[in-house]
Design goal:
Layout lengths: L1 H18 L2 H23 L4 H20 L3 H24 L3 H6 L7 H28 L2 H27 L12
Helix pairs in contact: 1-2, 2-3, 3-4, 4-6, 6-7
Length: about 180
């Protein structure tokens, strides 16, 4: 359920964009992200920092998009978020345990070298997504950018998580007969 909530604001933006326009969709994105935070608080009693960061960026850039009636701001939000996530991943790698290890380390006992490789892959994916978003946002029409944002970046995220799972599968401990 919690994972589905992560896609709720994106879905609200996408549907509202195609029913109305980017400005109403930006308002829907802000509202859906606030609702997402409220539901996460109710369901899990804890809202992760990444959700608060995203909410802040959505409110600022979505608000600027609506106020100035200029879609440039909402396009920049995606590039900035992916760039910041890349730096956040790099910072955790440098100053402590990588974020993928923090997320999955309790279930998977992989060596530090494996977590390093996963983290570098996540960093590269974030920065590539930021570059691609910038390129598509400012070199193609709005419909192309919205489709890329919704389907391309979401698809890339799924591919990244699947590739991470495939790579880390070798480190998942096998269950003994007693555990089964």
């Amino acid at each position: 359920m919690k994972q589905l909530l992560d896609f709720f604001p994106l879905l609200a933006f996408f549907i509202t964009y195609y029913l109305f326009d980017v400005y109403i969709a930006s308002g829907a994105l802000i509202s859906a992200t606030i609702l997402q935070i409220a539901l996460l608080q109710i369901l899990s009693q804890k809202v992760e920092r990444v959700h608060w960061m995203t909410l802040g960026m959505v409110v600022v850039f979505g608000g600027l998009t609506i106020y100035f009636h200029d879609d440039t701001f909402i396009k920049w939000k995606v590039t900035i978020i992916y760039t910041l996530f890349g730096f956040l991943l790099a910072g955790y790698q440098y100053f402590g345990d990588p974020i993928p290890k923090k997320m999955l380390g309790a279930e998977i006992e992989a060596p530090d070298s494996a977590w390093f490789k996963v983290n570098v892959c996540w960093i590269a994916t974030c920065w590539l997504a930021a570059l691609l978003n910038y390129y598509i946002a400012f070199n193609f029409d709005l419909d192309t950018w919205v489709n890329f944002k919704v389907f391309g970046l979401t698809g890339a995220t799924f591919v990244l998580f699947i590739a991470t799972g495939v790579y880390l599968y070798q480190y998942i401990p096998e269950q003994t007969e007693e555990e089964k």
